[in-house]
């Protein structure tokens, strides 16, 4: 018969009780480990670390297990005692730890500083009356032989008439069970490290051991050094030659089993070999192309994205190939002030150096717009060439035009300069501003102000930074003018009253936001041009996109369109080249489908003058005998267009995984269809394939600022400049191979950029126009049609 009595059970444990039991178990385990270690059966560091059980004062339950350093009373997590010992004791974080004798070992390791006697200790013993008394600073563990320890004579015991102190032999508590005699050495506590090195040397001589360093085969060493040298060259000056001699870098190489890399090795034969390899590869790719475009970048010393080296410029020459790739050709170091004739000569020398007698292989030059006259002269002297100015420079110049010609921009710039200068230079106001800025943004600092040497109408970047900074600090400036101390300043200072009036005036902030928004809009389009490197066929859609955005800006901020449109059209006219219209018409990417289903070139999007430009350019690029045939083929292209299937295949788009924008899936299709399915239009096809691959920007890649400074130092040395040119070539060649056009400074700026700054700026400009990607040309052309 089953019993009716129930078995009593314990009440279920709460989560806190379960956690407390686990912590108690962890603590008891650590105590056991430490006890064994002190007896010589565990790790050395337990002599200096003690487990501590921290309890909750309210419930008396275990809350945490900590490790306490017995040398400095610091507390650490007990999750990884070995790592705590390495980071706190071995790396010198503990202020009282210098050396410790590991048990069961005759090797000397750092001992704790706290175990050394104090020089001012009153617990002295009598000095030994016998000279030359032998002392052992490192006593052995009970089971080790005394022969493994060095017996030294203390210099402090030599009789001297000036010696007043006495040696201290007091024995400190020894948690490891060792007999440690503390010795005052003549060099002080620093002598202990040298003494340790001495005993280690003796031990190695008595029982030499094979090296435990990494052993690599000859092939592995050669391969590693080759990769190391390539990294050094492609860093383009981020790493200096002197860094190769750094002791820790040499120690790293030794640790991984590599020999030291000498400066003369990387600047000598290895550099020559790598340069020869890159040069040969570039020349081979240029020889394989039927024609190419030369890109010249660096004539404009005050460029948006260039580096200037004092008064010296580095002009970089690249070769753009029809297949969409680019190769580096050379770098020329020129003075900051040079004539258009000099620029023309350098450009033509580059063309002849690339082509020899077959100069017609170079179908054009694109250069930053410092000496546009040189481009025009070369084009007029060589009818087959199309020489265009950099589109990036055109957009940057447009911002300069607004700063120089539009009244609103000038007024806003002057007002912001007045506010920024007053806040930065008035002591009491500056103090108030920094206090509120620290409260609101978490960092202090002054408002950015363009240099007094800076021409605000020509250098937009400093002005842009100032407007952005003032907008970011708009709330802070409002708080400043409401501060009681600022009100006291206003009583005596009329400028303070004027500044306060502007800050409290809504019109000031509306005008500032309007100017900043337009500058930001154009600046972001310029950055997109810099990243995308558009072809000349995209120039007309780019400017049409800009016109649309500027009209929207005028409507949003209630700005008169007339003066704004005049400035934009004036800059467009200065930058315009007939090749823009011709490439736009001949590129199948921009064909439009009409009501009959045909895909026809977008002549409806051109003005009457631009249509004439197309005819003139095509007849100029062909011989006189072929001119009338080319015009007939152009008429056929205008009326018949291209097979719909091929047109649709050329215009297939896919989403870019990096930017998320829709882009042409195969950009080379535009050129290839002219060489295949449109081969009947023979003369016009020759013009088309030479036009539609031409780049509209001269920008290729960016050098690091550190390397440019290195060039400045060595520019007067023939050997130094030759090495610099070779390293630039290698780095540029590698960057273009990887299609990496940025530099390390920009990458680091992105890495360290804080999201909070962007969030605040977005909050200030929540209503500002959003800058979208490049306008889809088909959409613009559909509207025009």
UniProtKB/TrEMBL annotation:
Residues 16-98 form the DUF7963 domain. Coiled coil: none annotated. Signal peptide: none annotated. Pfam families: DUF7963. Residues 111-131 are annotated as: Disordered. InterPro entries: DUF7963, RNaseH-like_sf. Residues 111-121 have a biased composition (Low complexity). This is DUF7963 domain-containing protein.
């Amino acid at each position: 018969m089953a019993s009716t009595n129930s078995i009593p059970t314990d009440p279920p444990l709460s989560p806190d009780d379960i956690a407390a039991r686990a912590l108690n178990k962890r603590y008891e385990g650590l105590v056991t480990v430490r006890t064994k270690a002190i007896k010589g059966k565990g790790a050395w560091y337990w002599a200096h670390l003690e487990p501590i059980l921290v309890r909750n004062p309210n419930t008396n339950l275990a809350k945490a297990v900590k490790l306490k350093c017995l040398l400095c009373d610091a507390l650490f997590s007990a999750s990884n005692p070995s790592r705590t010992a390495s980071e706190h004791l071995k790396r010198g974080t503990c202020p009282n730890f210098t050396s410790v004798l590991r048990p069961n070992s005759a090797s000397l390791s750092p001992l704790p500083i706290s175990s050394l006697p104090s020089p001012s200790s009153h617990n002295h013993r009598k000095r030994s009356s016998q000279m030359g008394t032998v002392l052992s600073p490192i006593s052995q563990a009970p089971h080790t032989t005394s022969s493994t320890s060095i017996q030294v004579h203390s210099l402090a015991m030599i009789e001297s008439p000036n010696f007043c102190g006495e040696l201290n032999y007091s024995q400190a508590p020894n948690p490891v069970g060792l007999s440690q005699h503390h010795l005052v050495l003549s060099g002080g506590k620093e002598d202990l490290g040298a003494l340790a090195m001495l005993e280690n040397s003796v031990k190695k001589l008595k029982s030499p051991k094979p090296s435990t360093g990494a052993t690599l085969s000859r092939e592995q060493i050669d391969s590693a050094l080759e990769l190391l040298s390539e990294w050094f060259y492609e860093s383009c000056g981020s790493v200096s030659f002197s860094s190769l001699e750094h002791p820790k870098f040499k120690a790293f190489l030794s640790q991984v089993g590599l020999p030291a890399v000498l400066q003369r090795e990387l600047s000598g034969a290895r550099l020559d070999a790598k340069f020869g390899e890159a040069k040969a590869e570039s020349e081979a790719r240029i020889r394989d192309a039927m024609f190419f475009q030369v890109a010249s970048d660096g004539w404009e010393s005050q460029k948006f994205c260039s580096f200037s080296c004092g008064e010296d410029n580095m002009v970089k020459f690249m070769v753009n190939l029809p297949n969409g790739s680019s190769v580096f050709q050379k770098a020329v170091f020129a003075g900051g002030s040079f004539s258009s004739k000099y620029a023309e000569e350098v450009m033509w020398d580059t063309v002849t150096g690339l082509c020899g007698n077959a100069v017609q292989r170079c179908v054009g030059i694109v250069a930053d717009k410092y000496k546009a006259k040189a481009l025009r002269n070369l084009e007029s002297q060589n009818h087959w060439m199309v020489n265009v100015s950099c589109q990036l420079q055109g957009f940057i110049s447009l911002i300069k035009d607004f700063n120089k010609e539009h009244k609103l921009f000038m007024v806003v710039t002057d007002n912001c300069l007045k506010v920024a200068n007053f806040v930065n230079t008035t002591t009491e106001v500056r103090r108030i501003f920094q206090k509120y800025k620290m409260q609101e943004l978490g960092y202090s600092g002054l408002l950015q102000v363009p240099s007094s040497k800076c021409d605000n109408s020509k250098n937009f970047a400093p002005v842009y930074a100032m407007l952005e900074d003032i907008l970011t600090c708009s709330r802070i400036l409002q708080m400043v003018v409401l501060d009681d101390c600022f009100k006291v300043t206003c009583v005596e200072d009329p400028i303070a009253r004027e500044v306060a009036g502007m800050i409290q005036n809504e019109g000031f902030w509306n005008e500032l936001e309007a100017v900043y928004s337009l500058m930001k809009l154009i600046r972001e389009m310029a950055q997109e041009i810099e990243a995308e490197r558009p072809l000349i066929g995209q120039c007309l859609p780019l400017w049409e996109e800009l016109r649309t955005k500027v009209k929207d800006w005028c409507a949003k901020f209630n700005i008169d369109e007339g003066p704004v449109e005049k400035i934009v059209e004036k800059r467009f006219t200065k930058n315009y080249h007939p090749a823009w219209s011709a490439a736009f018409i001949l590129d199948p990417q921009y064909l439009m489908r009409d009501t009959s289903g045909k895909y026809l070139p977008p002549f409806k999007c051109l003005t009457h003058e631009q249509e004439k430009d197309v005819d003139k350019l095509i007849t100029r690029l062909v011989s006189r005998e072929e001119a009338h045939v080319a015009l007939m083929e152009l008429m056929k292209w205008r009326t018949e267009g291209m097979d719909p299937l091929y047109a649709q295949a050329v215009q297939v788009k896919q989403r870019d995984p990096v930017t998320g924008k829709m882009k042409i899936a195969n950009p080379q299709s535009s050129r290839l269809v002219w060489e295949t399915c449109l081969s009947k239009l023979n003369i016009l096809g020759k013009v088309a394939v030479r036009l539609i691959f031409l780049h509209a920007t001269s920008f290729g890649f960016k050098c690091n600022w550190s390397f440019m400074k290195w060039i400045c130092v060595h520019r007067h040395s023939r050997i130094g400049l030759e090495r610099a040119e070779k390293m630039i070539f290698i780095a540029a060649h590698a960057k273009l191979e990887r299609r990496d056009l940025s530099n390390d400074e920009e990458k680091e700026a992105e890495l360290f950029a804080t999201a909070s700054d962007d969030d605040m700026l977005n909050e200030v400009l929540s209503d500002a126009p959003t800058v979208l990607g490049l306008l889809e040309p088909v959409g613009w052309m559909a509207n025009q049609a």
